[in-house]
Design goal:
The chain has 384 residues and is of the alpha/beta class. It contains 15 helices and 15 strands. It folds into two domains: 197 residues, Glycogen Phosphorylase B (Rossmann fold, 3-Layer(aba) Sandwich), CATH 3.40.50; 180 residues, Rossmann fold (3-Layer(aba) Sandwich). The strands form three sheets. It has a seven-stranded parallel β-sheet, with helices on both faces. 44% of the residues are buried. GO terms for molecular function: glycosyltransferase activity. InterPro entries: Glyco_trans_1 (IPR001296), Glycosyltransferase_grp1 (IPR050194).
């Protein structure tokens, strides 16, 4: 069984899956960004990012030449690979697994291989941002056409499953392969480093620290969280923003000289577990559009922390059990966010209990379960 994987560039959430699959089937990943560089400019962070964990070890891969005038994964014409299908055919793939269709070459590959070899698809889109109107009706017809070329889709959670069903895929064409992160790395004990982070920020052992980690952009709504925090009037509570982005200046201006609001610039993967473990509560207040999941929530839960998320986060329906692993608030509603924040931070012992529950829940969302689900689909199709 030879599986060709089509994806844009090395990503910390996908590379471990490729490594697990490569140990059990013949696999090659075709990276369509195609320049061979692991440094990528991230417009959300506003800087070039080079991950500090290995993303190209343990599996076979090829860089596919990208001829796009404006290369990148931020638009449809940013991925143009004239040689992609020829490279896959030369490798004699028995099936393809495509990550995302919204690139010129990915869609062409899906169409090219339909009815030739099995076409598997992985994406995490949801219906959370769908609007009504003629434009959406046309988009609905188009998406049904796209997914008519897919033999089997691997959905990441319940919101994603509903999306695939709306656009034409049947239950027999869908399999659950959970969105996942490296649970073990985020759960590994980093108490000493976490304590140093807190003391370095002037946060006392008994104080509560709320963490936001990600891109400072409108989609993530960090300003909503800051404004809600300013209304709390709880002297033993702190808020930490970790990251960078276009809203950084606005956030720092709004924070003023409040010594309970802290900022740390973008931190790479190896530093993040200690930052999660330094907090008592993680918050992802995204308004979207396009917060299809929110894998930072998985990371915080693996670190044993409760989570507070908006109802526009794709993961909310699956990971956040109100009063058990955290809370969900109404998107964009500062009173809803403030109410949930107050209830959570007023009892530190409750936060600890919710954090234990979160850690237990996230064990079911692992790389191994995702890889096993993928292999089950691939092997069943290949056997038939």
């Amino acid at each position: 069984m030879r599986l060709a994987v089509i994806t844009t560039h090395p990503i910390q959430y996908y590379a471990p899956i490729f490594k697990l699959l490569a140990g059990r089937i013949d696999l090659k990943v075709f990276y369509t960004w195609g320049d061979g560089a692991q440094q990528k400019f991230d417009p959300g962070f506003g800087k070039t990012v080079t991950w500090d964990i290995p993303l190209l070890e343990g599996y076979d891969y090829d860089w596919v030449k990208n001829t796009a005038p404006d290369p990148g994964s931020h638009h449809f014409k940013g991925i143009i690979n004239p040689g992609l299908t020829n490279q896959i055919e030369a490798w004699q793939a028995d099936a393809i697994l495509v990550y995302g269709w919204a690139y010129d070459s990915h869609l062409k590959a899906i169409r090219h291989f339909k009815n030739k070899i099995p076409v598997y698809f992985r994406g995490d889109s949801t219906l959370l941002d769908v609007k009504t109107g003629a434009k959406q009706l046309l988009r609905s017809f188009f998406l049904r056409w796209v997914y008519s070329h897919v033999d089997h889709a691997l959905y990441v959670g319940s919101n994603n499953c509903a999306y695939f069903k709306k656009y034409g895929l049947k239950g027999r064409q869908l399999s659950f392969a959970p969105h996942a992160i490296d649970n073990d790395r985020f759960a590994a004990e980093r108490t000493e480093e976490a304590s140093k982070i807190r003391s370095g920020l002037g946060i006392k052992p008994g104080d509560v620290l709320i963490l936001f980690a990600g891109k400072f952009e409108e989609k993530k709504s960090p300003l909503l969280l800051l404004n809600a925090f300013l209304t709390l009037n709880m002297p033993n509570t702190h808020l930490l923003f970790v990251g960078n982005g276009i809203l950084e200046g606005a956030l720092k201006t709004a924070a003023g000289k409040n010594n309970h609001i802290h900022f740390i610039s973008f931190q790479n993967q190896l530093a993040m577990p200690a930052l999660y473990q330094a907090c008592n509560l993680f918050c992802l207040p995204s308004q979207g559009p396009g917060e299809t999941w929110g894998l930072a929530v998985n990371e915080a839960m693996a670190a044993g922390k409760p989570v507070l998320v908006s109802d526009k986060c794709g993961c909310a329906a699956d990971l956040v059990n109100p009063g058990v692993t955290g809370e969900v608030f109404e998107t964009g509603d500062i009173s809803s966010l403030t109410k949930k924040l107050c209830w959570l931070v007023e009892d530190k012992n409750r936060l600890t209990i919710l954090g234990h529950n979160a850690a237990a829940e996230i064990t079911n969302w692992s790389f191994s379960k995702q890889a096993d689900a993928m292999l089950s689909v691939i092997n069943n199709t290949h056997a038939n």
